[in-house]
UniProtKB/TrEMBL annotation:
Keywords noted in UniProt: DNA-binding, Phosphoprotein, Transcription, Transcription regulation, Two-component regulatory system
Name of the protein this chain belongs to: Response regulator
Gene Ontology biological-process entries: phosphorelay signal transduction system
Domain annotation ANTAR: ranges: 123-184
Response regulatory domain location: 3-117
Modified residues (4-aspartylphosphate): 53
GO molecular function, one term: DNA binding
PANTHER family: RESPONSE REGULATORY DOMAIN-CONTAINING PROTEIN, STRESS RESPONSE REGULATOR PROTEIN 1
InterPro entries attached to this UniProt entry: ANTAR, Bact_response_regulator, CheY-like_superfamily, Sig_transdc_resp-reg_antiterm, Sig_transdc_resp-reg_receiver, WH-like_DNA-bd_sf
Organism of origin: Staphylococcus shinii
Amino acid sequence: MTSIIVVEDESIVRMDIVEMLAAANYNVVAEVGNGEKALEATDKFRPDLIIMDIKMPKMDGLKASKIISKKYNIPILLLTAYSHCEYVEEAKQANIVGYIVKPISEAQLLPAVEIAMRQAQNIAELRFEVDHTKKQMDDRKLVEKAKGILMKQLNLTEEAAYQKLRRKSMDKQVGIEIEASKIIEKLR
Ligand SMILES: [Mg+2]
């Protein structure tokens, strides 16, 4: 079940949103009325999504979004009475995945939430892929370096050095990159 925090200073609007979400089987874990409270609730509940008004007392939604995004990878859907683009630029650094323009209707809210969740999933997958690719590249560099060391030390061909590295890692049942980093480490 998707957990959501709703941040909106106008209590009637907030109640409406919470009701719509609950009716659609979303789990609203907290509803608060300003940016500061949004930070606290986020620390406490780590929700899957935050729906956040822009104009609020104490701390506005943009500032709160930026602070939250430095700490967590939680998607944020902004609520705004302004359809202007003036905030879009400012919001780029934060994990803002969309805007909903007031007045809010069910027909507008629910698809926006769905899209936001799907987008967040895509971003998470992409991040995983990037991390994975980076590790593969790092591992490859280690293996190349270790291979070079073995070639020089033992006067081996590239293929023989690679096979030696591979055999060692298989014997020890560790990844080839781990064996490679040990060989590099020894030289230091
Ligand atoms: Mg407001």
